[in-house]
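Minutes, project huddle
Topic: does the predicted pose make sense with flavin-adenine dinucleotide bound?
PN asked that the exact inputs be recorded in the minutes so nobody has to dig through chat later. Recorded below.
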Amino acid sequence: MDRVVIVGGGVLGTMHAVMARSRGMDVVHLEREVGPRGASVRNFGLVWVSGRAPGLELALAQRARTLWQELGERVPAAGFRADGSLTLASDDSELGLLKEAAAMPDASERGFELLDPDAAAEVNPALRGDFVGALWCRRDAIVEPRAVLAAFRDYLGAPQDGARYHWHPSKEAVEIAPHAVRDHVGNWHRGDLVVLCTGAWHTGIAGPHLAGYERPPVRRVRLQMLQTEPYAGRLTTSVADGDSLRYYPAFDLPGRAALAPQAPAAAAAAAQLLLVQRLDGSLTIGDTHSYTEPFDFDVDELPYDHLRARAEQLLGTQLPPTRRRWSGIYSQVTGSELYHRSQVAPGVILVTGPGGRGMTCSPAIAEETFAT
Ligand SMILES: Cc1cc2nc3c(=O)[nH]c(=O)nc-3n(C[C@H](O)[C@H](O)[C@H](O)COP(=O)(O)OP(=O)(O)OC[C@H]3O[C@@H](n4cnc5c(N)ncnc54)[C@H](O)[C@@H]3O)c2cc1C
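Predicted holo structure (tokens), as shared on screen:
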């Protein structure tokens, strides 16, 4: 394979470009916006191994984590840091579940260790609030979502290499043919392989290929997020609250059934607290989940009040003011596979639907494309 055309400048498209170039292929990369505006620039930047289901999902995330580390060393502007995470229990039912997780057969592979509050505060001295224990996951990591994509495009377009990587922003792919796509101004882009990484746009060129199944293979999920002004302290890990134990498959253990009810504001928004410090000191805080369309076009204040209060309770201090709020939508497979891959025409494949693990798993998903 000599030449690949990639549609979509999000993290899946960008990682396909990276993996194709590292195998010596020429890459043509189309993005319909001036710069990517999708889920990849709206997320936490969490490379999240801790919550993955044992087996294939964990293996994909672990491979991706290894690749992120290698890529982060090659492209420092991506902001990769192997900071690990702490999931904090606020009551005995959450602590019981953390204990079960720390005893799972693959706990050491994830870098799990159960900590009491003093030990957790030694790992992350910013944690001076109320919690009864913590699960440390040393394998979790962070990248900078608003910097990653441009950092890799700069790397791919560097003078020694740039003639073989062609970035075409503001070019929407509107038609597919064998081994080719046409953009909205009428140019055809041909390659040995065309990879559509069009994210949560389930209409457009991907639309006809996602329709016609008895059950749609992907659905869309909307999340709300916020970012504060810079925080005076330094968080040495990312942080999750006990509500996260309800959502991640790794924690589907007997203790989950014994969890105390969620706070009403969290339950109403299917919220969990995830907290990541950005390189400028600000804190990215989220998230909520809505699964039913049509999605709201405005953001709802109630879950923000809950998430800010929960973060303040765990940090034991007031948060800086909110700088910005936004929502984002990701594409998520509805079946048991880890992401959606289908051939939509000879020499044209569609890769989407990694859901809330897309930032984490993107390098390994792209690697699988070129391994097949
Ligand atoms: C709020 C939020 C928080 C998240 N947090 C995390 C996290 O911390 N860790 C994690 O692992 N995952 C996280 N995720 C999930 C992750 O962000 C996504 O799975 C991932 O970004 C999907 O990448 P993508 O490239 O498929 O999609 P996108 O980033 O949406 O990119 C798709 C791109 O394709 C372009 N496009 C679409 N159609 C066309 C066309 N016809 N022609 C040209 N271009 C086109 C779009 O403009 C867009 O730029 C989060 C998601 C959200 C929304």
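Observations noted during the meeting:
- Residues 78 and 148 are 4 Å apart (CA to CA).
- The chain has ten helices and 19 strands.
No decisions taken; revisit at the next huddle.
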